[in-house]
Amino acid sequence: MIKDLIKQMTLEEKAGLCSGADFWHTKAVERLGIPAVMVTDGPHGLRKQEGEADHLGLNQSVAAVCFSPACASASSFDENLLYRMGSALGEECRSENIAILLGPAVNIKRSPLCGRNFEYFSEDPYLTGKLSSAQIKGIQEWEVGTSLKHYAVNNQETYRMTCSSEVDERTLREIYLSGFEMAVREAKPWTVMSSYNKINGEYASENKKLLTDILREEWGFEGFVMSDWGAVNDRVKSLEAGLELEMPSSNGIRDEQIVKAVREGKLSEELLDLAVERILKVIFKYSKADATDTHYDREEHHKIATDMAKECAVLLKNEGALPLSRQTKVAYIGAFAKIPRYQGGGSSHIHASRVTNALDIGKDKNPNIIYAEGFPHDKDMEDQSLFEEAVKAASEADAAVIFAGLPESFDSEGIDRKHMRLPECQNRLIEQIAGVQKNTIVVLHNGSAVEMPWADKVNAILEMFLAGQGVGEATDALLYADANPCGRLAETFPLRLEDTPSYLNFPGDGKKVVYAEGIYIGYRYYEAKKIPVLFPFGHGLSYTEFSYHDIQVTRGNFTEGESITVTAQITNSGKMVGKEVVQLYVGDRTGTPGRPVKELKGFAKVELKPEETKPVTFEIDARSLSWYNEEIGDWYAAGGTYELLLAHSSADIRLSEKVEFTPVREIPFRVDENTTIGSLLKNPKTAPIMSMMLSKSNGGNASGFGSSNEMLKEMTGGLPLRALFGFSKITEDQMKELIYVLKEQLK
C-alpha cells in the first residue's frame, strides 16, 4: 500500500513530506489520504503548544502532568517505574492526538556543568540504556512513537549547534553510543533524533556512519531519523546520510533543494522514495491504531508522578535527624519549601496541571511547623533580615529543614553552568543554621551534582533532584517516614569541580571539544585515579538496613554464545519495609590494559519487609565483559578471570565471585619489524621462538633480553624487532626469516 502511494506522489510531494508543515506537524497529502501528525516535546510530560509555537519553552502549552525528569527518575534504578511513567505518557499522547513524543534523552552526563543534565539519565551507559528502554516500551504500548535523542555525543549546551565533539572510536562505542544501542535493540523506538553538533568534524545530521552504518545496519533500526529543531546543515547530504525528516518547517526552501538535486541527478529518487516510505510507515502506524479511549484520569497520573518522586529521592546522609515526628517543632526554611523546583528550563518545560509543595502538605499534618523564607527561590540574593529570621526560627525549633537548590536559570537548555555551587546566599545560611541547630536537614532541588561545603556540618541531606509535580507530597512522605527513601545516585557527586574528568576540556574552544578523558568518566574515572568523592555513584541510604549473603554462580567458566547466572540472597535486617537496589559490577582481572576498575552490568530493586529475605538474579554474557576493540571493529572480551561484584553502591561492595572466560576469537597479532620484543615474549605462540632466537644471538643466553633484572626486561621488552639489527647484529635475511617463522607460528 505505502509503495503504491509513493508511486502516485509527485516529486514535490515526496520532497515536501521530508520536512515539517510547521513547528510541530508533518505535512499531509490530502489527495492521497496521507494525514498530518503532531509531535511534541517531552520527555517527562507533554509540552503540546497551541497557537504560536517555539522550541525553548518560552510560550505556554496545554496543562499536562509533569513527571520526574530523568535526573530524578534515573535514581529510581527501577525499570518497572520507568515503564509505568512511559505508559502514562503514552496514554496522555493518545488523549491529546500526539503521534510522537520527543524523548527520552539518553546523552551521557560527561560533566556536571551541562545545562541539560536534568533531562539526561546518568553518567553510566548501561543504566541509561535499561531505563530509557523501559520508558520507550511504556509509551509505545499505546501505539505512540518516541524519538530517542540526541544522537549523538551531545553533552553540552555551549556552542551546541556548531562545536565538534572529538572522540575516539572506543570511547564513542563504549560510553556515548551504548545507551542508544541498548534502547534501539531492546525497545525499538519509532524515531531517532539527530543532534546539533559535529562529531569528529562532521555534523551528526550528515553522518552516514552514525545514521545508516551503525544505527540501521548494525543495530537494526527500522523507523525514521528526524533532525533536532534547526539542526540540518546541508539538506541533500543529510538525506543521503540517512536523515529522513527535517524539523521544523523550512518554508519550502529545503524541499526545493531536494527536488533540484533529484532533477539534476545529484540525488537518487530511489533514496528519496525510501525516506518517504520510512516516514509513512510511522505515520500510518499511529493513525491506524485503535484510539477509542481518548481520555485519561489526570488525578491518577498525578498520583503516579507523586509515587515516582518518592521512589527517586536519594537520602545522601542521615545521622539520626530523619525521619521526623509529626509532633516535632520543625522550622521550614527557604523559598523552595513554598515554591519548589520540580523541572528544568527549555524545550522540556511542562505546563504542570498542579504542583504540590512541602510546606502546605506538612502544615496540614503537623501544626508545629514554622516557616522562614531565608532566601528566594529564583536568585542569589542575601537579605540580612531574612537570614536573622531564619536563624532565629531554627534555633527555637527541635529541627530545621532547609529547602535549597538551583534556580531555574542554573538548570536550563541553552546554557551550561559555570560552576557547581549553590547560590552563595544558600550556602551561607546553611552554615549559619547548622551552627545553631544540631538537627539541620537539607532538602535539595537540583538537576545535577552540586558542591556541598557544609556537608559535614549538617545532620541529614535528602536529594529530591527535580522531582516533578508531586514533589511536595513526596518530600513530606520521606521526611516523616510515610515512605522509605530508596533512590540511588545515577551520577557521582564530586567534592569539587576541579576533580571532574572533563575539567580541562569542557566545553572546548567553540570549534572543538576534545574528549581527552576517553572512557574514564564518572565513577570509572574517580576509581581509576583514586580520587575521593562527596557521594559515589549508586549511593543511597534507607531507614532500614539490608544484608547480602549466599552468592552463587551457575558455573565458574563460560565462553562466547553462553551466559551464566549469579544469584544472592538479600535480607531486610531492620525494622521498616524498604527497597534495596542491588548493583552488579564486573571487574576485568585479565590484565588487559585500559579497562576500568569495574563497570555496572546489572541492577535490581527488591522490596522487603522486616526480616524478609528474597533472591536477586543477574545474567552475564560475553558482552557484559567486553570492551570495544578498534583493531577488529567489534566488542571483545579477553580470556581470563573476571570478578562479579554485588554492591550497595560503587564504593560499597558486599559480595564477590570470580569466573573464567574463554574467548572463541583472538585479536589478530600482526608481526613486522616494529612488533615489540616484549609482546612476542608474552604471546604463548611466539614466545618459544623469540626466546630461542634471543638466546642464540647472545651466545647461549638472552643477556639483557632474558635477564631477571626487571629494569632490563622493561627496557628491552619495549624494543621493536628492528632494534635487533644493532643489538644482536642480525642480518636482513635473518630478520625476514624470523618474521616469516613467527607469522607461520601464529596461523
UniProtKB/TrEMBL annotation:
Q: Which InterPro entries match?
A: Cellulose_deg_GH3 (IPR050288), Fn3-like (IPR026891), GH (IPR017853), Glyco_hydro_3_AS (IPR019800), Glyco_hydro_3_C (IPR002772), Glyco_hydro_3_C_sf (IPR036881), Glyco_hydro_3_N (IPR001764), Glyco_hydro_3_N_sf (IPR036962)
Q: Where is the Fibronectin type III-like domain?
A: 580-650
Protein keywords: Carbohydrate metabolism, Glycosidase, Hydrolase
Q: Does the keyword Hydrolase apply?
A: yes
Keyword Glycosyltransferase part of the UniProt annotation? no
Family under the similarity heading: Belongs to the glycosyl hydrolase 3 family.
Q: What is this protein called?
A: Glycoside hydrolase family 3 domain protein
Q: What organism is recorded for this protein?
A: Lachnoclostridium phytofermentans (strain ATCC 700394 / DSM 18823 / ISDg)
